[in-house]
Amino acid sequence: MDKIKNLSLRKTIVLYMIVSLIISFFLSALIIRTATTIQNNIWWKYVDQEKYFEMAEGDGREYLTDVPRPNSYEMENFDYHVSEICDFLQTFPALIVSVIGNIIAVFLFYKHKLKYPIEELELASQQVGQNNLDFHITYENKDEMGSLCKEFERMRKQLAENNRQLWKMLEEEKALRAAIAHDIRSPLSVLEGYQEMLSEYLPKKEIDIAQALEMIGESRKQIERMDVFVETMRKMSSLDARELVAEEITSKQLEIDIRAELNVFEKKFGKRCELECLETAEKFSGDKEVILEVIENLLSNAFRYAKTKVEMEALLTCSKLQIRVKDDGVGFRIDKQKATELFYQQNMKDSLKHSGMGMYISRMYCEKHNGKLLLENQEHGGAIITAVFHRIA
User: Fold this and answer.
1) What are the structural domains of the chain?
2) Percent of the chain that is helix, strand, coil (3-state, to 5)
3) What's the chain's average pLDDT?
């Protein structure tokens, strides 16, 4: 039964038609035979039976001839009409029965192969039109309609995923607007306060030059903070629009680029980093600038929170590039996934120099490479961040 259910539409309609024609053939033969028998019985009533048998058995013959057809005026009215109907049934049953059989076959074909998937697709189209994607198409036969339903289900899942991504973007934009309002207002409020103090107290000479210079220095820090924020907004605006540019990356060249980054961070933070980069002849295809930016963000985060040491591992194959960075700091103190959200800062003292965008940008770039950013805590303290990149064409 399952084999018949999973037959293609073409094979199914051919099967239905063959069965219909076979049944029609035998049914037509039965109708013809029955009509002939009834007609002969009617005619037999109007035949001189003695004369008929004499003629049939004369000259040594031992077979019966056809019952002769009586004239219409000899038959009763009812017998005449029944005989005429039998004539019709002997002449046209094959045509009538085959037509009726084909019609029935088409209806059965529609009922068993088309009705249910068409109804499901129609209902699914209505649900999509109402912007409701929380449904599933259950028709799973392996025929053309099953393939169509499967494609529609795939499209529904893609639409649902697109809606989820859109909703996520809207939420991030909402957070972005709130952050803009907060991060711009805070330094402006500080600058306004210093300006009012200088305008009020400096003419009266109620503050000395040292205090005035201190206020000016603090004002400069707030301006630098705003510069960092504006640069972050610039990166945000170009993040989604940035197209990846694939180029071949070797393990040797990757190690050279990483060590160049490490030298800068080790001098800046006064902490050491151990790098393990397995050398291989395989080549990875990816956007080198994007990958190096992610590495820079991971190292910046690790050096900032490490106590004394950072460890880094790089594993390159032709299909995947994996970068793992460990530090001996306190690790993630709250939900690890929040560290990849917009403007996350574990230490609020960093807000003057860091906007909390590094992990978010790294996650976005990993996802652009069909990869992911994994965050973990080590058993004995410290964080582990793993960036996974998959090969792009």
Assistant:
1) 2-129 (no CATH), 162-239 (1.10.287), 247-390 (3.30.565.10)
2) 65, 10, 25
3) 81
